């Protein structure tokens, strides 16, 4: 059997990370097996262990990747003139496209329930926590408040509303209640006259 080149190994690992990041957000950590991941990449199950020691390790790597992608999307969006605002973040986060495409969306929302059910010793906890803190810092950076504690408290509330609204909207998709959750959170976060 021919050996796989170092470049091909790197491409395979990149594909595994990319696809697992999407599949975990779409189906959850326990909704995707190693067989599912490797089949989606076009590789064999046995090849997985040449890249990762366990699915737990991959879950942490994929979560970090998803958090980085979210940060990159925000940076690209907010770098446009006039777009580094809470309204821009809220409008994009509470959009039905974000609700309907978890594979491309925020891992904080997509994996909250799964990570909560994982043992605290699992590597995905630290990766998730890092992603959640990045999102919190992003929200804090949008606050006009000079008071650090107030900015932090405000960002905690905003994040809870954003994540909660999208989680509930996904769980009730197909019913009018789904969009009502998104709209109610948008109105609470961006009251008329405060936009």
From TrEMBL:
Domain HTH tetR-type: residue ranges: 10-70
Pfam families: TetR_N
Keywords assigned: DNA-binding, Transcription, Transcription regulation
A GO MF label: DNA binding
DNA-binding region coordinates: 33-52
InterPro entries, per the entry: DNA-bd_HTH_TetR-type_CS, Homeodomain-like_sf, HTH_TetR, Tet_transcr_reg_TetR-rel_C_sf
Protein name per Swiss-Prot or TrEMBL: TetR/AcrR family transcriptional regulator
């Amino acid at each position: 059997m021919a050996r796989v080149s170092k470049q091909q190994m790197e491409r395979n690992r990149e594909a595994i990370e990319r696809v697992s990041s999407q599949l975990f957000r779409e189906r959850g950590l326990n909704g995707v097996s190693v067989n599912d991941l490797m089949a989606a990449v076009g590789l064999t199950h046995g090849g997985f262990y040449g890249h990762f020691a366990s699915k737990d390790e991959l879950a942490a790597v994929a979560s970090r990747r998803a958090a980085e992608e979210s940060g990159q999307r925000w940076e690209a969006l907010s770098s446009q003139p006039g777009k580094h605002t809470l309204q821009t973040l809220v409008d994009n986060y509470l959009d039905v496209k974000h609700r309907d495409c978890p594979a491309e969306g925020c891992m904080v929302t997509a994996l909250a329930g799964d990570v909560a059910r994982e043992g605290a010793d699992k590597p995905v906890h630290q990766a998730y926590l890092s992603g959640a803190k990045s999102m919190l810092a992003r929200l804090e950076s949008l606050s006009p408040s000079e008071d650090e504690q107030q900015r932090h408290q405000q960002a905690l509330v905003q994040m809870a509303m954003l994540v909660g609204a999208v989680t509930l909207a996904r769980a009730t998709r197909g019913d009018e209640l789904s969009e009502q959750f998104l709209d109610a959170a948008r109105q609470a976060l961006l009251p008329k006259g405060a936009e």
